[in-house]
Design goal:
Number of strands: 16
Strand order of the largest sheet: 13-12-11-10-9-8-14-15-16
CATH superfamily of the largest domain: Aldolase class I
Number of helices: 14
Helix content: 25-40%
Radius of gyration: 24 Å
Oligomer: single chain
Largest sheet: 9 strands, mixed
């Protein structure tokens, strides 16, 4: 979207704002609808799917979850939208305004059609989103070794390293599947254990993948998922030279981080992680920060997001998920009211210093409010998880249940066809979700977490109450951010 001068309705000042494109955390929109034109002589009405929340100074953040991104209306634009609360002929609506304002009214109405706030008779609604991703995502666990012992880690730490031969075989397998299924982009996530223990291997594998990507005309993206403690200036220089991104886990400042993420000898890692983040920033590498929220660190969230915003760091807030290795640690879990209170306190801290980037895919667990999607993640469809031995699984949380290995002609086809293990259903297959107004932003939440708490996949998330309470607050935060930074639509 290109931004230009304001759209004004003279002294009534009608202005419509929209969000910039954001990077999707784990679910991509594939909803392709033709933006309808204003019908000549036809009828318009407000979309029944559209939501609106009031902001300061008589502005409103509005959104249609079937289209995705919110826009902000000032009071005059909001009044114009309300004009179509009941179906109204276009000519009757436009006749309410002086002729010199017709161009501004036309532009504003067209924007409301574009973003799904209005609908035509010929296009009464929007079809459910289809999953048609152009990106194949693959996790490469380069080692099982790690210098930390995080209490919620899913890795068994049996000290297995990926060999260079297995690494190249893994990348070959990823490209075979990408070519077989027509993907135009591959995202490689170099993980562990701690992948910085194998940085030389990561570098060699990414160079190998880059050569294949060039040969086959496929776009390549890569990110290292690290605890950050082993980051050095030389490592930063190498990561930058490879064009890799860096994601660092930080769960809080000081003891709030240390409660979950300590060294093998028991010493906390918070100071080393924050030093690594500052090192990366000072040497030109902006890391993405992953925050896991549990009962041990929720109280420190406001302080953490303030620290992150002061450094203009992109971050995501993710809920702790129990698994077989951490299920006995009951203090990691939180009641709904505790989680909600912690999240709202963090949102309040974010509001005090809003960043100049979209927050729609960052603030509520795996949810992405910037784009409609029917699946919560790419598991079972566009996703491969490869362990250090070359075994291929559906999800990193189920690496013990390998479906195939990297010698298969097309590992992705076997992952898609596997009837055992995690089942990633469309939100439309989840009975409790079908009528929810948020269903195409939430998509029902993590299927594995749902199964662990409810014993089935075709139902809503155990976090459903929290999600529904937080989504309006995320929209309001995004509306405030747009008021602060965005330019008016033209």
């Amino acid at each position: 979207m290109n931004y230009s001068g304001p759209v004004l309705l003279q002294d009534r000042g009608m202005t419509v704002y929209t969000a910039r494109q954001c990077d999707c955390a784990c679910a991509e929109s594939s909803l392709h609808h033709a933006y309808p034109a204003i019908p000549s002589g036809g009828v318009l009405s407000a979309s029944p799917n559209a939501l609106a929340y009031r902001l300061p100074a008589d502005h409103y953040v509005t959104a249609n979850p079937l289209v995705g991104r919110p826009i902000v209306l000032n009071f005059s634009a909001f009044q114009l939208w309300q004009t179509f609360e009941h179906p109204l002929p276009v000519s009757a609506a436009f006749a309410q305004f002086p002729s010199q304002l017709q161009a501004a009214i036309t532009n504003s109405v067209q924007q409301m059609l574009t973003w799904g706030l209005l609908k035509t008779e010929a296009s009464p609604g929007f079809a459910p989103p289809k999953h048609e991703s152009n990106t194949l995502i693959a996790w490469l666990h380069t080692t099982d070794r790690c210098n930390l012992r995080c209490d919620y880690c899913y890795s068994p730490h049996i000290h297995v390293d990926m060999s260079p031969e297995t690494g190249r075989g893994a990348i070959d397998a990823v490209f075979r599947s990408a070519l077989a299924h027509g993907y135009s982009r591959i995202k490689l996530k170099y993980a562990g254990g701690e992948p910085l223990l194998r940085l030389a291997l990561v570098a060699a594998l990414h160079r190998y993948a880059d050569n294949l990507a060039r040969r086959y005309g496929i776009l390549l993206d890569g990110v290292i998922l690290s605890n950050g403690t082993l980051l050095t200036p030389d490592a930063v220089a190498l990561i930058r030279s490879l064009g890799l991104r860096l994601m660092i886990s930080l769960d809080g400042l000081g003891s709030f981080h240390d409660r979950n993420r300590s060294y093998t000898a028991g010493r906390g890692s918070a100071d080393d992680v924050t030093r690594a983040i500052d090192l990366a920033l000072n040497t030109g590498l902006v890391p993405e920060i992953s925050v896991t929220i549990s009962g041990r660190n929720a109280e420190g969230l406001p302080m953490l997001v303030t620290w992150l915003n002061e450094r203009n760091l992109p971050f995501s807030l993710n809920f702790y998920r129990d698994h077989d290795r951490s299920g006995s640690l009951t203090d990691l879990q939180m009641a709904d009211d505790q989680m909600l209170a912690a999240m709202l306190a963090a949102f309040k801290a974010i509001e005090a210093d809003l960043p100049n980037r979209s927050l729609l895919a960052s603030l509520v667990d795996r949810a992405n409010l910037s784009a409609p999607h029917a699946y919560p993640c790419a598991v079972g469809q566009d996703y491969l998880v490869i362990d250090p031995k070359g075994r291929v699984s559906k999800c990193q949380m189920q690496m013990d249940d390998a479906v195939t290995d990297i010698t298969a002609d097309d590992p992705l086809a076997q992952i898609r066809g596997a009837q055992t293990g995690i089942q990633n259903l469309s939100v439309d297959e989840k009975a409790e979700c079908r009528q929810c107004e948020w269903r195409y932003w939430c998509a029902g939440g993590c299927p594995l977490a749902t199964y662990r708490t409810k014993g089935c996949y075709n139902t809503s998330s155990s976090n459903c109450t929290i999600y529904k309470a937080l989504y309006p607050e995320v929209l309001k935060l995004e509306g405030l951010r747009l008021l602060k930074y965005a330019s008016p639509l033209q």
